[in-house]
Design brief:
The chain is an alpha/beta fold. It has two domains: about 70 residues, Alpha-Beta Plaits (2-Layer Sandwich); about 170 residues, Vaccinia Virus protein VP39 (Rossmann fold). Helices cover about 35% and strands about 30% of the residues. The strands form three sheets. Strands 10-9-8-11-12-14-13 form a seven-stranded mixed beta sheet, with helices on both faces. The longest helix has 16 residues. The chain is globular.
């Protein structure tokens, strides 16, 4: 017996759902005739998994016909995601297969991040762009101590990547308790302890970072409307000379987001556009740099 969780949502939220479930082979988004509504379906192994999604997001749960479930499960497995020459992210969880991957790619750090609940594996354009910036930052800080702060962490793949690539500690939080639950599962399967990663549920608009939650690298993968309002809080999480990476920005909203950031003393030296998404790297201008 198999189950699915189903939800109708306004089409304007399609980008948000697409980013959340990117890489999840058991999740499907379809546009309903007329174009104003989308249907999100997540296939689940158990009724309980589907009911958890219903409790969290609303929607409905139904039993799935055998042939539908077989079709959903027979999708071709996604190949590992390679980031620069130093990181590999896979949905594999089997110890022997992970060992084989490590032997095949001995110079790469490997993270196991399977699709879980209504979350994907981290290969959305916004996430992969952030991962590349993290790899570049880690390379530039090789041999030095550095810390990382992940704002709107989702599955915590960015914070875990930073730790694998040399960060001595990281802090990561998300407004969504389910995201934190999934992130904690990912910590456990990758052997990352609470001492290295401070993971918690939090609201960026109410959060005041402790000393240990401030980073030399701060990454905020949030929608532009949230970023624009959250820049004052984000800046408080930046250590002196910290690098800031922002993502989750639609290209059509980049100019207004950049203008909002610049009014707060931020500047960007590298901007990447992938499809309809923008990711940017920068920091505080010298005249407004934190002490």
């Amino acid at each position: 017996m198999s189950w699915s969780w189903n939800k109708l949502s306004a089409a304007k939220w399609e980008d948000a759902w697409s980013e959340r479930i990117a890489g999840n082979p058991n999740a499907v988004i379809t546009q309903i005739k007329g174009g104003k509504t989308i249907r999100i379906v997540v296939y689940c192994d158990t009724e309980q998994d589907a009911l958890i999604l219903k409790e969290h997001f609303g929607g409905s749960v139904r039993e799935v016909k055998t042939q539908d479930w077989v079709a959903a499960q027979n999708k071709v497995p996604r190949p590992p995601l390679k980031i620069r020459d130093s990181l590999l992210i896979t949905e594999q969880t089997d110890a022997e297969k992970l060992k084989a991957l490590q032997q095949q790619f001995p110079k790469r750090r490997i993270l196991s991040v399977p699709a879980e609940m209504a979350f994907g594996t981290g290969d959305h354009a916004t996430t992969s762009a952030c991962l590349r910036f993290i790899c570049d930052f880690a390379k530039s800080r090789k041999g030095a101590d550095w810390s990382m702060t992940d704002i709107g962490c989702g599955t915590a793949v960015l914070a875990m990547a930073a730790l694998e690539l040399g960060a001595v500690r990281a802090a990561a939080f998300d407004f969504d308790p389910m995201a934190i639950e999934v992130a904690r599962h990912n910590m456990e399967r990758n052997g990352i302890t609470d001492a290295r990663l401070d993971l918690f549920v939090g609201d960026v608009f109410e959060w005041t970072p402790t000393v240990g939650q401030k980073g030399d690298l701060v990454v905020a993968n949030l929608f532009s409307t949230i970023l624009q309002k959250a820049f004052p809080r984000i800046i408080t999480a930046m250590k002196q000379n910290a690098v800031l990476v922002i993502s989750g920005i639609l290209a059509s909203q980049w100019e207004e987001t950049k203008a909002s950031a610049e009014r707060r003393g931020l500047t960007f030296d590298k901007v990447i556009k992938r499809g309809k998404w923008v990711t940017a790297k920068g920091g505080l201008r010298a005249s407004t740099a934190r002490v």
